[in-house]
UniProtKB/TrEMBL annotation, chains A, B:
<dbReference type="Pfam" id="PF13662">
    <property type="entry name" value="Toprim_4"/>
</dbReference>
<protein>
    <recommendedName>
        <fullName>Recombination protein RecR</fullName>
    </recommendedName>
</protein>
<comment type="similarity">
    <text>Belongs to the RecR family.</text>
</comment>
<dbReference type="Pfam" id="PF21176">
    <property type="entry name" value="RecR_HhH"/>
</dbReference>
<dbReference type="Pfam" id="PF21175">
    <property type="entry name" value="RecR_C"/>
</dbReference>
<dbReference type="InterPro" id="IPR034137">
    <property type="entry name" value="TOPRIM_RecR"/>
</dbReference>
<keyword id="KW-0227">DNA damage</keyword>
<keyword id="KW-0479">Metal-binding</keyword>
<keyword id="KW-0862">Zinc</keyword>
<dbReference type="GO" id="GO:0006281">
    <property type="term" value="P:DNA repair"/>
</dbReference>
<dbReference type="InterPro" id="IPR006171">
    <property type="entry name" value="TOPRIM_dom"/>
</dbReference>
<keyword id="KW-0233">DNA recombination</keyword>
<dbReference type="GO" id="GO:0006310">
    <property type="term" value="P:DNA recombination"/>
</dbReference>
<keyword id="KW-0863">Zinc-finger</keyword>
<dbReference type="GO" id="GO:0008270">
    <property type="term" value="F:zinc ion binding"/>
</dbReference>
<keyword id="KW-0234">DNA repair</keyword>
<dbReference type="InterPro" id="IPR023627">
    <property type="entry name" value="Rcmb_RecR"/>
</dbReference>
Amino acid sequence: MAYSPLIQELLDALRCLPGVGPRSAQRIALHLLQRDRGGGERLARALEAAMKRVGRCTQCRLPTEETVCELCRNDKREQSVLCVVESPSDVFALEQATDYGGRYFVLLGRLSPLDGIGPADVGLDELERQLAGGEIREVILAVSPTVEGEATARYVADIAAEQGVSCSRIAHGVPVGGELEFVDSGTLSHAFAGRRSFR
Amino acid sequence: MAYSPLIQELLDALRCLPGVGPRSAQRIALHLLQRDRGGGERLARALEAAMKRVGRCTQCRLPTEETVCELCRNDKREQSVLCVVESPSDVFALEQATDYGGRYFVLLGRLSPLDGIGPADVGLDELERQLAGGEIREVILAVSPTVEGEATARYVADIAAEQGVSCSRIAHGVPVGGELEFVDSGTLSHAFAGRRSFR
Ligand SMILES: [Zn+2]
Ligand SMILES: [Zn+2]
């Protein structure tokens, strides 16, 4: 015996969610069908709209459905300082933990030549263009202290030096090998304030 | 600063999934946006179709988009035996663990007069109609050994007795206070085979 075709397709489709196996797919599907159809329909509409219409901010690469994101449009933020992070969630973690008021650049990944992930794949070509533009005077590296993060930091420090842009990196205090987004606010705030020149 | 409207709506909508808080909503949304748009679109379509079109089997109350489910349409199954369970996942657990070949009746809940959940709310009126129909000779109770399950078992045993239908209940071995769907196959198979007359 089997679930009906529409339910089976829902069970299969739920497997695209990170951490969802056959058992939790069943639990989610039955929960929505029996107790929250409205929630399920809302999620369907939200998913469809987001998957089709969300792109990247042309300036900072944050995911957004707008050409330029709200953060980049905010001219009260310091335009000459650029904080380089690996993922959108790092931007939100830094915004919550620090009083940083400059701009961001989101790599959406880490340089990893061994895996065939080169500079252009994580937006480092676009970063280089922005640094060459002359408006940016300082780059703050807030990449994870992992092997790939180190390679990325090295690469950004080099292109910043070529353009005469000063470059600092947030202080250790972030556990080595750890993911930035899972660090508590206090540690992250401390690490950010204690950043040191990096070249 | 905030996520863009479409992303924020996706984060909010994801909260309808059981066990998903703000942090995992963010993780799921960014995963789909950055790595699996196809999966997200497929899930949107599957959710929409299932939420709008899945109803209940008119015979056994299993969720299905068909009027009568595949299991009830299967005339190779013994039509005179009816196994009463609390939830659709119990049907799947029993089908995997046992060689039971009769029909099912899914209550979709448990009798709980203190919470205002009466017989009609869990389909016991429909069950009574089916027992009065004369085709069913045996009812097997596979409800959980919880307080509400006991009340449900008692109720079903009474209406079965009124109609002269024999009634048995799957054996203990299922941990008392436990949920049927989380029991391992071996225990469940044993408990099912060791069912005893219940009146
Ligand atoms: Zn932006
Ligand atoms: Zn059915």
